[in-house]
């Protein structure tokens, strides 16, 4: 492995050297959106196996197979979303659409679980795929916006914020599940993507064009 080529600092364009966090909230907004979107992702991936076994009465082997299938579908979904993003020449508009889809899928999962419907199994797979599909877009946008001299720090901030959320969400949601059940937990997790939608900095796509 080797680092990609980058200009010498003495020859770099001024906007590549400037602190991208100063005078702009774009990166902070992407970090915030990513934290809000990772919460339902972590919850689905953490509790699906147990939910299938305790609420849907699946065997451990069958539940494990479904989780594995959902992971493969999620990986394919991320690739497809990356391709979609390249085609439409936008990182933020797809993220905003994914946030809406994540909210809808988590809400439908909550409803179908509350109704004790077998459709809830399909919904948990759909939610598993949708809630992971934005990750690559956010990381790509951050690297593109931060530029070659700030991308390491910006990506470190992104990763740290998401990992902190991934560490906090399971015990908090687990306590909620114990107190109010899975349906309530899934419903609350539908709120986070809704909050994220207006925070997505769609204008950042224009910023990327200007930095080229």
TrEMBL record:
<feature type="transmembrane region" description="Helical">
    <location>
        <begin position="121"/>
        <end position="142"/>
    </location>
</feature>
<dbReference type="GO" id="GO:0022857">
    <property type="term" value="F:transmembrane transporter activity"/>
</dbReference>
<feature type="transmembrane region" description="Helical">
    <location>
        <begin position="30"/>
        <end position="52"/>
    </location>
</feature>
<keyword id="KW-0812">Transmembrane</keyword>
<dbReference type="InterPro" id="IPR011701">
    <property type="entry name" value="MFS"/>
</dbReference>
<keyword id="KW-1133">Transmembrane helix</keyword>
<dbReference type="Pfam" id="PF07690">
    <property type="entry name" value="MFS_1"/>
</dbReference>
<feature type="transmembrane region" description="Helical">
    <location>
        <begin position="58"/>
        <end position="76"/>
    </location>
</feature>
<dbReference type="InterPro" id="IPR052952">
    <property type="entry name" value="MFS-Transporter"/>
</dbReference>
<dbReference type="InterPro" id="IPR036259">
    <property type="entry name" value="MFS_trans_sf"/>
</dbReference>
<keyword id="KW-0472">Membrane</keyword>
<feature type="transmembrane region" description="Helical">
    <location>
        <begin position="185"/>
        <end position="204"/>
    </location>
</feature>
<feature type="transmembrane region" description="Helical">
    <location>
        <begin position="97"/>
        <end position="115"/>
    </location>
</feature>
<protein>
    <recommendedName>
        <fullName>MFS transporter</fullName>
    </recommendedName>
</protein>
